[in-house]
Amino acid sequence: MTLPAVVIGIGNRYRRDDGSALKVLEILTDRVPQSARLVESDGEPARIIDSWNGTDVAVIVETVRRGDAPGTIATIDWDTQDSPAGSPHHDHGSHSLGILEAIALGRALERMPRHLRLVGIEPLDLGWGEGLSDPVAGSIDAAAQLVLDSLRSLVNG
Amino acid sequence: MTHANGASRTLSVASLARVEGEGAMHVVVRDGVVSDVELRIFEPPRFFEAFLRGRAATEVPDIAARICGICPVAYQMSACQAIESACGITVDEQVLALRRLLYCGEWIESHALHIYLLHAPDFLGYESSVALAQDHRAIVERGLQLKKVGNDILTVLGGRAIHPVNVRVGGFYKAPSFAELDALTERLRWAVDAAIETVQWVAGFDFPDLQLEGDLVAMQHEHEYPITEGRIASTSGLDITVDHFPEHFSEEHVAHSTALHGRMRGGGTYTVGPLARYNLNYDRLPALVKELAVAAGVARECRNPFQSIIVRALEVVFACDEALRIIAAYTPPAAPSAEMPARGGTGHGCTEAPRGLLYHRYTVDDAGVIRDAVIVPPTSQNQPSIEHGLREFVQHRLHLDDAELTRQCEQAIRNYDPCISCATHFLDLTVDRG
Predict the structure, then answer these.
(1) Which residues, in sequence order, are CB contacts of B358 under 8 Å at separation 6+?
(2) Is B155 exposed, middle or buried (0-12, 13-18, 19+ CB in 10 A)?
(3) ipTM of the modeled complex
(4) Average of pLDDT values for B270-287?
(5) Residue B83: Cβ within 10 Å count
(6) Three-state DSSP class for residue A132
(7) Chain A interface, mutation test: which of B48, B119, B163, B426, most A Cβ atoms within 10 Å?
(8) Domain B47-382 has what CATH class?
(9) What is the pLDDT of residues B391-417, one digit of tens each?
(10) Nearest CA of chain B to the CA of A136: how many Å?
(11) CATH assignment of A5-155, given 3.40.50.1450, 3.40.140.80, 3.40.50.1100, 3.40.50.1370?
């Protein structure tokens, strides 16, 4: 059954703060409204498109590096602009597959949700291992609340 | 990317596009001769092997699934097999059939992703799958739907499409009913037709001339096209059981990559993956796939890496057909899983990941704790072969300008579908604060 909203958490729990989105999903498990479902993602674009397929609202939680203080939370609404607020660097790692490609491909195939919001969390440590750094761990509750607020405003918006 | 003078130049691609993970390429030309080719892979430096030591053997399938988002089943299956071998566990025939079915799902998903989103744009002159989708929406949709059929198998059997949670040492936590599997039948029948159309589509591409040299290594099975069971064989006549892998293959550190490089002991580079499987196991393919292979012009033998896209498409037909066969013959096992005895030992596991041979070895103590772990993924085995092939490839294309030569090199690397797993998934954004 397709629900009107989906929350997609993208990350890798074995790369420290890259697991922040998955932690947000964990604490949202019993808190999201019944009209929304939670999806864990490794960032593969076709699966992301499948995850939001047929939904009205998609909120994506992901680690985002913008040069802000670690733990800073940023939101970007993709449905209100043609391109994201900035562009991906190609000298810092794996961006050949990911959310930007999912959005571009979703647009080309006309398979986009009506509202698409990114909730990004600035990382401190992307090295190998489990567990979040203190500033990122300290932002998880706020990020989860922001997701809930987003669902509330966007689903009815 | 920089130009040097005359016949000397250096090509560098800091971040390879359309490969899964993080990688870079560095080619040096001196006086008209390719002097150095390095594929720089930023693979996890044995993180998972160290991480698994001290963990309960029963935890390994869940942890191993996280090594790669694209082929979690492969890591789970090789891991389970190795631990079951170490602990003397015999797995029920129907459970083995379910594992093969789960693996078919992963082959379908992984190959469809590579064919449609990563590789096909190269042959059709598009810079990305997005550009391809803008001009050929129906074709890309077919690829995504085909991929989703693989996803659906993983969801039914694995509990979810990424990092399956239903797999355990000895089998599954829960075996599906016949009705649950049969619900996949209609979609799989569509998938067989879509996969056949895929073969016919990619067979019409133009392929540069290139012959893969050296040994091809894959599993071989008496009756089946190999996925989860068999011996390890090579085109030069190697034929060993899985537990003899360490005696014949080694891994070496190289300065330019955190991934180890695979070598045959006393020999040279070798290649694993679809071409190796196909060349060593053509006779095990069903008649339908052989007929398509003949029509596509790659019957029995194919050593052109660019034509690996045809072989992947043939393997998708096979995997869809095989999934239908397994479902039709399925009766639920008496128990979804064999019990794990309190017995330790060292065990070896080997299966055919979409990208090729994936070997695991574990030493488990009598308390069921992992004491040692060795994981040899396909991409590290192929890395020397990719570099060797690139050296020849570039040497014959030095007349091209840097941009075109770089593009063709990237395409040549993508022939191998390198999976440089475990990359982070963060997004770099530059912000114009005006």
Answers:
(1) B71, B74, B75, B78, B350, B351, B352, B375, B376, B377, B378
(2) middle
(3) 0.85
(4) 97
(5) 26
(6) coil
(7) B426
(8) mainly alpha
(9) 888 888 888 887 888 888 888 888 887
(10) 14
(11) 3.40.50.1450
